[in-house]
Amino acid sequence: MHQVVDRDGALHLRYTFEVKGDGVPELPRVGLTFETQGAFDRVMWYGRGPQENHVDRCTGAPIGLYAGSVHGINHQYIEPQEHGNRTQTRWLELLDERRVGLRVDAVTRAAAFDWSVWPYTQEAIERAMHPFEIARSGNRTVNLDAAQSGVGGDDSWGARPLEHYQLNAPGRWKLDVVLRAQR
After folding, report:
1. Which residues 6+ apart lie within 8 Å of 173 measured at CB?
2. Residue among 170, 147, 110 at smallest CA distance from 30
3. Residue 159: inside a domain, yes or no?
């Protein structure tokens, strides 16, 4: 892990995730999760969209410039689960109504990242049996991922993702982003 704050206050994060050895289960995602202010209710990004997409479900989501609200970009599935992922993102802005907030940039095009933003925590999703039971927090949960496993379901909803869409050991993944205040 390498973190540098430059004189403009931008935080450069370079994380390398390496999994060695046999017997390690498949990883669902590799990345960072943090919380921001609940006032950051608007998102704008340059990457795949506008709808939710995944590494094995992205060809129908063209790369472009998209915007929406945190609530508007998320889909409530009948059974609560992670959702709202966007792939191959070059930059992301989380903004309040005055367009003040946080900007995340991939350092290079090859360092494009996946992301999702929720008005509740991962734990709240896991505790709920139905969407109306998900307890909203006053903050935003932000997931920045170097990689995620695919969702699978190629021949039925029970099918596993193809092997090249799985995050298996041994493996090495990098997340190389810059976080800065957006004013």
Report:
1. 16, 17, 18, 30, 146, 147, 167
2. 147
3. no
Domain that holds residue 80: 26-152
Is 99 among the domain residues? yes
Would the pLDDT of 107 be above 80?
A: yes
Q: Is residue 2 part of a domain?
A: no
pTM recorded for the entire structure: 0.92
106 in a structural domain: yes
Q: Could you count the other beta carbons within 10 Å of the beta carbon of residue 104?
A: 22
pLDDT score recorded for residue 153: 74
For the chain, the residue count is 183
What is the Cα–Cα distance from 50 to 110, expressed in whole angstroms? 21
Please count the other Cβ atoms lying within 10 Å of the Cβ belonging to residue 123: 11
